[in-house]
Every structure is written in structure tokens, then in C-alpha cells.
Amino acid sequence: MQAIYTAAQHKLPVVFVVMRNGEYSVLKSFAALENTPGVPGLELPGLDIAAIAAGFGCRAVDVDSTDKLAHEFTAALAADGPTVIVVPTKPQPARLGWQGSEPIQQGRLDRTAIALIPRNGRIRHG
Length: 126
Prior knowledge:
Blueprint: H1 2-9, E1 14-20, H2 25-33, H3 49-56, E2 59-62, H4 66-78, E3 83-88, E4 98-99, E5 102-103, E6 114-118
Parallel strand pairs: 1-3, 2-3
Antiparallel strand pairs: 1-6, 4-5
């Protein structure tokens, strides 16, 4: 959320695509890995990311199909300032540590990603 706030304050031309699953999956998985299941505060059913982003001053939309995602992403590229596109997903356990007999491969995104995409495709330095 800090990155979204900063982008809004500076009117940065970025598109945020946020995968929303209604929980803090990585911490739930970490709690299970540490044999401490049932940690409170990890269910986030009422978190309205689009409303928070709009409150910061961003253009923000929820999408429910790949067609809407493509349409809103294209619109975001032409917007003045940042856009937040929220995509609902189903909660899935994050894969931490060892799963069965195979370790997680380092450097591989598994299920969740947040993308920051400058409109011109280039990262500004300085």
C-alpha cells in the first residue's frame, strides 16, 4: 500500500495489478510451517484495495474477467497518474520451505505477483 500511496502523491505513471485473495496467505503458510496455526488477523475479507487506492487519489478498478483486465490495463496506460487494477483470486497456501521431497526453486514466482509497470516500459533513475 505504501507504493500505491507514493505513486499517488507523485502522480507517477504506473499500473499496479494486485491479486486479491482475501487473506494473508504467506503468513498463514508460515504459521503452519512453524506449527502455530490459527494466528488471528490473517483473514482479510473486507479489505477493499480499490477503495483505499481511490482514497489515495489513484484511478482504481476491480475486474472479474480477463477481457475486463485487458480493457482496464489498456485504459490505465493512457491515464494521468497511477492506476490500481484489482484481480480477485482464490486463496491458496503459499509454498514455503520444503514441500514433500522437493525444495522450492529459488527465483520462481509461484502463485501471487504484484506488478509495477511504467507506461513507457522504462524505469526512471534518479
